[in-house]
Amino acid sequence: MARLGDIRPMFDTGVAPGSAAADPTVAAAGGLKVWSQSVTDGGSSFTYRMVGNSPFVHQTAPSTSIKTPLVPVIVRFTDGSTWNPTVGDSCDTTSAVTRTMSSPMVKSLAWSFGGTSVGTGQYSDAFQRASFSPRPARPGSTRAIT
After folding, report:
1. How many Å apart are CA 33 and CA 57, to the nearest integer?
2. Residues near 112 by beta carbon (within 8 Å), at least 6 away in sequence
3. Fewer Cβ atoms within 10 A, N terminus or C terminus of the chain?
4. What are the start-end ranges of the E strands in 34-131?
5. What b/e sequence results for 19-41 when a residue is b if at least 16 CB atoms lie within 10 Å of its CB, and e otherwise?
6. Cα–Cα distance for residue pair 142/136, rounded to 1 Å
7. What span, in angstroms and rounded, lies between the C-alpha atoms of 107 and 87?
8. What is the mean pLDDT of residues 98-125?
9. 116 has which bridge partners?
10. How would DSSP label each residue in 49-63?
């Protein structure tokens, strides 16, 4: 049994030793749109790369579409039973594939977080977009955090 003093926090500190950082030119050559930005904290500069169009540049068509195939996997158990995500069953007459395609992770919907509209899109897109939108002022402050 581990004691509290034996437990070490595990977190990503960047590129793992012995591996290389993702090359944005390779991603762009494959048709995947990427952008990068740098931030400075405590005298150190950190560059990050994200898929899509930069939210810091005004664009007439800011959306980026990435085709993602949904691959249903049929599971056959050793007792002969099967779970098939393409068909409904006695617990739910709607298939898992249909539920997935109707979910906010896949379906485009209008989103508002904390009363601020962030537009229409999939949940993960809207959530990410909201993280780049101007945030409300801190208590006691007269200006928005940017």
Report:
1. 14
2. 118
3. N
4. 34-41, 44-51, 75-76, 82-83, 109-113, 116-121
5. eeeeeeeeeeeeeeebbeeeeee
6. 10
7. 20
8. 88
9. 113
10. EEES--TTS--SS--
DSSP-derived secondary structure letter, 136: P
Count of residues for the chain? 146
Please name every residue paired with 75 in a beta bridge, in sequence order, or none if there are none: 83
Locate 26 and state its tokens.
């390779």
For 140: left if phi > 0, alpha if psi spans -120 to 50, otherwise beta; the answer is left
Distance separating the N- and C-terminal Cα atoms of the chain: 46
Q: pTM higher than 0.85 for the full model?
A: no
> What letter does residue 15 receive in the DSSP assignment?
S
Tokens describing residue 60: 């007439």
β-strand partners of 38? 47
φ, ψ of residue 27 in degrees (nearest 5):
-65, -45
Q: Closest by alpha carbon to 118, among 106, 107, 132?
A: 132
Cα separation, 61 vs 119, in Å, equals 13
pLDDT over 90 at 9, yes or no: no
Q: Look up residue 142 and give its two tokens.
A: 């007269």
